[in-house]
Design goal:
The complex is a heterotrimer, with 1 copy of chain A and 2 copies of chain B.
Chain A (H helix, E strand, L loop, with lengths): L6 H8 L3 H10 L3 H11 L9 H17 L6 H18 L17 H27 L22 H24 L5 H14 L2 E3 H7 L3 H16 L3 E4 L8 E4 L5
Antiparallel strand pairs in A: 1-3, 2-3
Chain B lengths: L2 H14 L6 H7 L5 H17 L4 E6 L2 E6 L4 H8 L9 H13 L4 H8 L4 H9 L3 E6 L7 E5 L1 H6 L11 H11 L1
Antiparallel strand pairs in B: 1-2, 3-4
Helix pairs in contact in B: 1-3, 5-7
The chains are: A mainly alpha, B alpha+beta.
């Protein structure tokens, strides 16, 4: 078939501006959509698809897509292969064996069922579209003061949980990068820092110091600084009972 | 309590509720009343509320009762709210959603097989808009994630339950006629 | 337009409005109607709305009209607001839950290190909702408490076991992006 026989291909070439191409291709989102489009346009009987003609048209569309540098996804090539395979099967003359089944399996049957199945869901999507139209024209608005915990409204699904985790991981990575750029603190600086803290507090939780340490090195420095202050008998470590949290208390006024 | 008072409270509760109110919830609010009395009160209230020539209506959505404006007034309401129609789902998202709605629980690979093309972007949109949820894993090699529609799906499309959807056979009939 | 239709739209607008609706605003919505007709419609609508034995009323507040529930029903409405299904979590609680789910067993210090934010209030909420449980103590200095998800957590998210949780890899597959 020549291009002149296919008005749609001409349309493609005439409106080669980028936006119009995108729109056109969106209406054939996948290979099945393109086949359905061709079948409807040519008013073809779905149960008797002229496979040679359809294959030719399909391949023309593929060529145009390639010419326009549109990334042709794998499923498009798969469908091309399927069409060519069906075409070749149909060209082979069927050997008549009267003792076998009268009707040979038509090589197009599977594709036809796939197309019908696809059309079925396209229709279901149309139905959802119409329903959405209707629902878009109503509003439901409970009064604001009826929402007791207004800022705490997150209906939780597994997807939310995973998204939340991903956010945390992302933030963690960013923070690590930032810290690597920061200058590291020395034990002497940390001792001064802890002494300053005990000017205003008599008791602090051991864990509160460790919580501040965002890097491993910072953690070690903090730990060593605390041990040094214990050695100097400026602070003492104790537990109220076994397994309880470790507390740090000031033992003498620091200079 | 007088039926008329029960009805008034039911109306007020449907008004303040964020989600559709299920009949069972009324039994918690009125523990002293019988199920029959509450069901009757609910039915009478909804009928008379909707028989008014007012601007609101009470609809059965997602197994509960929900107050909304009437669709015929949408233009003037939109003028007042100065909102544009909310972002509609793309045709790809609607098709993916249709496959999930009718074939649930379904895996991404099964969706691909029916649609004949990759559907992960559409699925991502549907998950973000909470129309679709992860409902489990299929007991096959690789244990792929199974997807299904959510309560939000019913609300978004004004359905009381999944059985309100037309059957797939109806669509295959139409499909046969179209092709 | 018929007065009854104007009244219905006025009612719907007062229903959807965030703030009390002033009479002047109706003149913007109905530019083709006279002030007298609109004032009359508003008056009639409010009177008949409030004459109903329903659960809501329209009140004049701050020079405008506002829809509220009737004060006499506040106790039952409060009961409802308390009993409604509380499947809601704050973002902080959700993030904390996500860290616990994916990193369990985990200490409070480790949660803080990963989230970079204080998490003790969020953790408290999760413990109260029984989504998280204490699963032991870590064998390090101070023997901090280890947290993990509970059976309630599995039920809430419809999981058979923790191995059903979607992985980050699966997520990036759906999202089609690189992590």
């Amino acid at each position: 078939m020549e291009n002149g026989d296919n008005p749609n291909v001409e349309e493609f070439q005439e409106t080669a501006g980028e936006s119009s191409i995108t729109i056109r291709l969106e209406s054939f989102e996948g290979p099945l959509d393109l086949l359905l489009h061709l079948i409807k346009k040519e008013e073809i009987d779905i149960w008797n698809i002229p496979i040679a003609g359809i294959t030719e048209q399909y391949l023309e569309y593929l060529d145009i897509m390639k010419e326009l540098n549109i990334n042709v996804a794998g499923e498009w090539l798969m469908m091309a292969a399927t069409l060519i395979y069906i075409k070749s099967k149909m060209l082979v003359p069927q050997e008549k064996k009267p003792d076998e089944q009268q009707e040979e399996e038509d090589p197009r049957t599977e594709l036809v069922y796939q197309l019908l199945e696809h059309q079925k869901f396209k229709n279901a999507a149309e139905m959802l579209y119409t329903r959405e139209e209707v629902e878009n024209s109503v509003w439901s608005k409970p009064p604001d003061d009826a929402l007791e915990d207004g800022n705490e409204v997150v209906a939780v699904t597994l997807f939310d949980l995973l998204s939340a985790f991903r956010e945390v991981v992302k933030r963690f990575e960013e923070q690590r990068v930032m810290e690597l750029e920061q200058e590291e603190v020395t034990i002497e600086q940390k001792i001064e820092d802890i002494r300053r803290r005990f000017l205003v507090h008599d008791k602090l939780l051991f864990s509160s110091f460790l919580l501040e340490a965002r890097t491993r090195r910072h953690l070690v420095v903090t730990f060593l600084a605390l041990l040094e202050l214990v050695r100097l008998r400026e602070i003492g470590l104790y537990q109220k009972k076994a397994f309880d949290e470790i507390q740090i208390s000031k033992l003498k006024e620091t200079a | 309590m007088e039926p008329v008072e029960i009805q008034a409270i039911m109306e007020a509760i449907i008004y303040v509720a964020e989600d559709p109110v299920k009949p069972e919830q009324f039994r918690e609010i009125f523990p002293e009343e019988s199920k029959d009395i509450l069901d009757q009160a609910l039915k009478t209230m909804v009928e008379s509320f909707n028989a008014r020539p007012g601007g609101m209506m009470i609809r059965e959505v997602a197994g509960g009762y929900r107050m909304t404006t009437r669709p015929e007034h949408h233009e003037r309401i939109r003028t007042y709210l100065k909102t544009r129609p909310s972002a509609k789902l793309s045709m790809a998202a609607l098709e993916t959603l249709a496959v999930i709605a009718y074939k649930q629980p379904v895996t991404l690979a099964e969706i691909l097989a029916i649609r004949g093309k990759k559907s992960s972007t559409a699925l991502q949109t549907l998950l973000e808009r909470k129309l679709v949820a992860i409902v489990g894993r299929k007991a096959v090699v690789g244990r792929p994630i199974l997807y299904g529609t959510s309560k939000e799906f019913l609300i978004h499309f004004g359905l009381n339950s999944l059985s309100d959807l037309p059957t797939l056979e109806e669509f295959s009939q139409i499909a046969g006629e179209q092709l």
